[in-house]
Design goal:
mainly alpha
Length: 101
């Protein structure tokens, strides 16, 4: 796993917009921007685990698109937590793309 993905996983879950510190947001943003696409399945699995309560100033949405670059996406084992709206979004996007979940 690349160090940038590991850092995001280590810093996760993503902070809420109401509690995020500027320093943490800078760290997350720098790590995200350093990740070359596509990511591996292992990296997608790690990133799915970091979704928080809200969009974290757009970072959650960016991670959705990044996760979808994994070669075996959608990975069904990552899409079971339907209590998380970002997992629901990933599920719905996979279904709209023609996958049966």
């Amino acid at each position: 796993m690349r160090k940038e993905v590991a850092l995001i996983a280590k810093l996760g879950p993503l902070p809420s917009e109401s509690t995020a510190s500027v320093e943490l947001l800078k760290q997350l943003d720098a790590a995200y921007r350093a990740i070359e696409r596509p990511i591996t399945d292992e990296e997608a699995i790690a990133l799915v685990e970091v979704f928080g309560e809200d969009g974290c100033f757009g970072l959650a949405s960016s991670l959705v698109h990044l996760i979808e670059t994994a070669p075996s996406w959608p990975l069904l084992s990552c899409l079971t937590n339907v209590a998380n709206p970002w997992i629901v979004e990933l599920r719905e996007r996979a279904i709209r793309a023609g996958y049966t979940l």
